[in-house]
Design brief:
Order of helices and strands: HHHHHHHH
Largest sheet: none
Mean pLDDT: 82
Helix content: 55-70%
Radius of gyration: 18 Å
Number of domains: 2
Distance between the termini: 57 Å
Number of strands: 0
Number of helices: 8
Shape: globular
Length: 182
């Protein structure tokens, strides 16, 4: 059974572009869902992320950046709840759309690839996790991510593997090179 809406004042689905999309309420709901996720309140975060995703799919379409970001957020909720298969499925769907619409070199496509590698690491699928993590780093993962790969708790299962040490060194090297003046 679906809970009542957590978005204030929402009594039913918005209709058309004059609905919640682009409104401060939808933006606030997304921020609140993110905070709930960070606090480990995944069930509540999931409910809000589902609501924002439903609105965005209807109003913006399935390939809009905002819709894709909501899909990434919902996948993170699933992963936080230990629902790795659901998280992986949604994150792969997001990655495929990112790659098709934005291109494989786009930062959001690389972020989706990184996110899947984290899910796979948590599922214990180390080989594919390394493959996708390597792909994300090689395609130019944002320098901020390059610097946190080593300490990302979602990749804890990969620590101690020589491939991880090599990957971390490569990521740090790329981050340092990106900060060098050209």
């Amino acid at each position: 059974m679906r809970r009542p809406s957590l978005i204030p004042g929402r009594t039913g689905p918005p209709s058309g572009p004059s609905g919640l999309q682009g409104s401060p309420i939808l933006a606030s709901a997304t921020v609140l869902a993110f905070i709930l996720n960070e606090e480990g309140r995944y069930d509540e975060a999931e409910n809000l992320h589902r609501e924002t995703l439903d609105v965005q799919r209807r109003v913006l379409g399935p390939e809009h950046r905002g819709t894709l970001e909501s899909m990434r957020n919902l996948a993170n909720d699933f992963a936080g709840e230990g629902r790795y298969s659901e998280a992986e499925k949604l994150q792969r769907e997001t990655m495929n759309v990112d790659r098709r619409v934005l291109g494989p070199e786009h930062p959001l496509a690389r972020l989706s690839t990184y996110n899947i590698s984290c899910i796979l690491a948590r599922k214990g699928n180390r080989d594919e996790a390394f493959q996708l993590l390597r792909e994300a780093v090689d395609h130019g993962l944002a320098p901020t991510f390059d610097l946190v790969v080593e300490k990302d708790p979602l990749l804890q299962a990969l620590h101690g593997d020589p491939r991880f040490a090599t990957l971390v060194a490569d990521a740090k090297e790329r981050a340092a090179a990106s900060r060098m003046p050209k």
